[in-house]
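Here is the promised in-class demo. Please do not try to memorize the tokens; focus on the logic of going from shape to residues.
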């Protein structure tokens, strides 16, 4: 049986290992939502125009450099989630947003946040969008502005690693423009973070129990206790209270109000700083129709005084 710290190769020679505790937690967070995603923006300014082919080559270099960018999430024979390299390790989700300029990156960023969820079984677990380049003249020089929008599944990246990825990407782009020879070597595929930290910190039994309970409660909150979407209130049906007679449950709000009665309701609503709908809702919030009748009578009392 494969343990979490073991890294192996599949029959096709692809890297694989079980997900660690934190990785399983982030995988659960992102189920049926994008709350487990990291969305970030890279703004580039240069004195030369950006070649999209250079961007694509630099992103392929990132794929070769960092093993987690080549991973998908599958299950092993014991139904445990595990990382495994994609069928095509050079799969890259790069698209150009030709209808959005780099200066309008905030609008595009909102679309990126609400993007489609990742197909974790197929991969890749990250995507990039390249906005249309803009040019600004500063004195006698032209400054070219480019924007790259990134989305990473939290199971393969955190805030610190995202900065490192951006730093490496800019380094690769600079080398491509200078036509420098670049040798990209893959980093080793490492064990889960808790395995790497176990020699630095050794929690006692009580601390380990509390950590497990914390993530278990979070998992239950995400799955079992997630509130369902609210239904349309006006299409909902409610059971009448069983403690009152049929006569008490009949409608007490007049079907038609005269102009004077309507103006009285409006005036009463203004005095209480609420809408007419809010006033009627408040009047009918009590479970007894008798109290509803008295509330409406008080609202209309100026007409009958």
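The designed amino acids, position by position:
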């Amino acid at each position: 049986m494969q343990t979490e710290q073991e890294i192996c190769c599949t029959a096709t020679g692809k890297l694989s290992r079980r997900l660690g505790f934190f990785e399983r937690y982030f995988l659960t967070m992102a189920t049926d939502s994008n709350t487990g995603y990291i969305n970030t923006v890279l703004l580039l300014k240069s004195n030369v125009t950006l070649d999209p082919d250079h961007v694509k080559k630099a992103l392929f270099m990132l794929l070769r450099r960092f093993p987690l960018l080549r991973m998908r999430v599958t299950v092993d024979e014991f139904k445990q989630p595990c990382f495994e390299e994609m069928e095509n390790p050079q799969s890259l989700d790069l698209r150009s947003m030709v209808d959005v300029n780099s200066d309008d990156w905030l609008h595009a960023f909102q679309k990126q946040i609400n993007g489609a969820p990742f197909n974790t079984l197929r991969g890749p677990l990250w995507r990039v969008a390249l906005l249309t380049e803009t040019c600004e003249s500063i004195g006698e020089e032209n400054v070219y502005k480019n924007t790259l929008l990134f989305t990473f599944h939290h199971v393969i990246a955190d805030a610190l690693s995202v900065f490192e990825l951006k730093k490496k990407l800019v380094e690769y782009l600079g080398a491509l423009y200078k036509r420098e020879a670049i040798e990209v070597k893959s980093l080793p595929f490492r064990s889960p973070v808790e395995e790497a930290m176990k020699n630095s910190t050794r929690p006692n039994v009580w601390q380990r129990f509390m950590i497990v309970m914390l993530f278990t409660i979070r998992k239950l909150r995400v799955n079992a206790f997630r509130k369902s979407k609210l239904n349309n209130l006006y299409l909902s049906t409610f059971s009448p209270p069983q403690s009152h007679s049929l006569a008490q449950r009949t409608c007490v709000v007049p079907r038609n109000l005269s102009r004077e009665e309507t103006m009285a309701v409006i005036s009463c609503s203004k005095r209480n700083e609420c809408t007419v709908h809010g006033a009627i809702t408040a009047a009918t919030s009590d479970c007894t129709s008798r109290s509803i009748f008295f509330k409406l009578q008080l609202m209309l009392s100026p007409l009958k005084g």
